[in-house]
Automatic annotation (TrEMBL):
<comment type="similarity">
    <text>Belongs to the HARBI1 family.</text>
</comment>
<dbReference type="GO" id="GO:0004518">
    <property type="term" value="F:nuclease activity"/>
</dbReference>
<keyword id="KW-0539">Nucleus</keyword>
<keyword id="KW-0479">Metal-binding</keyword>
<dbReference type="GO" id="GO:0005634">
    <property type="term" value="C:nucleus"/>
</dbReference>
<dbReference type="Pfam" id="PF13359">
    <property type="entry name" value="DDE_Tnp_4"/>
</dbReference>
<protein>
    <recommendedName>
        <fullName>DDE Tnp4 domain-containing protein</fullName>
    </recommendedName>
</protein>
<keyword id="KW-0378">Hydrolase</keyword>
<dbReference type="GO" id="GO:0016787">
    <property type="term" value="F:hydrolase activity"/>
</dbReference>
<dbReference type="InterPro" id="IPR027806">
    <property type="entry name" value="HARBI1_dom"/>
</dbReference>
<feature type="domain" description="DDE Tnp4">
    <location>
        <begin position="21"/>
        <end position="154"/>
    </location>
</feature>
<dbReference type="GO" id="GO:0046872">
    <property type="term" value="F:metal ion binding"/>
</dbReference>
<dbReference type="InterPro" id="IPR045249">
    <property type="entry name" value="HARBI1-like"/>
</dbReference>
<keyword id="KW-0540">Nuclease</keyword>
Length: 206
């Protein structure tokens, strides 16, 4: 884990990052059961692959099979990764004092996810200026690793298809899921998560 956090900071400037989290849509043929649940906002049928990757694009955790209309935050909240993050058992208990604040190992994610002490998200677009805009840019440089990992995974899949490489198809029984939830709002000011984010803003801009 120290190698991962060091790797993220070396490549992006973001400290104490243990992984980059995001979701992507995998196209499917409309299933016979609950087809509308798999019809995503982009206008096609899919399942969601949610992944957590390291600085070297290797997957640390993944969850696949949720219907395409589900929101990224809902998929995360239903995952084993989320439970382990809440319990504090996914990462080792390593902390770093940054500007007087004890900062744990964190996940970086986009604005679809909820801010927490161990999940950092950007400040809302349009309101982030100066140091906060620099924080957003730094977080984005760390988070882009998960998007690159998804790209590599899809290229590998296409290669397997073209070369007729045998692989096992997933067969998931997915029940009806609730409608997608709106983008997650920030937590109240002066919460531990906000204090950590402000400490990171100062650190990144120092």
């Amino acid at each position: 884990m120290e190698a991962i956090t060091t790797g993220f900071e070396r490549k992006s400037g973001f400290p104490m990052c243990g992984g980059a989290l995001d979701g992507t849509h995998i196209p499917i043929i409309a299933p016979a059961s609950y087809p509308t649940d798999f019809y995503n906002r982009k206008g096609w049928y899919s399942v969601i692959l949610q992944g957590l990757v390291a600085h070297n694009y290797c997957f640390l955790d993944f969850d696949v099979g949720w219907p395409g209309k589900c929101h990224d935050s809902y998929v995360f909240e239903c995952s084993r990764l989320c439970r382990k993050m809440e319990e504090g058992t996914f990462f080792p208990p390593i902390r770093k004092n940054i500007n007087g604040v004890e900062v744990p190992i964190m996940i970086v994610a986009d604005s679809a996810y909820s801010l927490a002490s161990n999940i950092m998200k950007p400040f809302p677009e349009g309101t982030a200026r100066g140091p906060r805009a620099a924080f957003n840019a730094c977080l984005s440089r760390a988070r882009i690793h998960v998007e690159h990992a998804f790209g590599r995974l899809k290229v590998l899949h296409n290669f397997c298809e073209m070369q007729n490489v045998a692989y096992q198809e997933l067969n998931e029984d997915v029940m009806d899921q609730p409608e997608a939830v709106p983008e997650q709002n920030d937590v109240p000011a002066f919460s531990p998560a906000e204090q950590i984010r402000e400490a990171l803003v100062a650190y990144i801009n120092s």
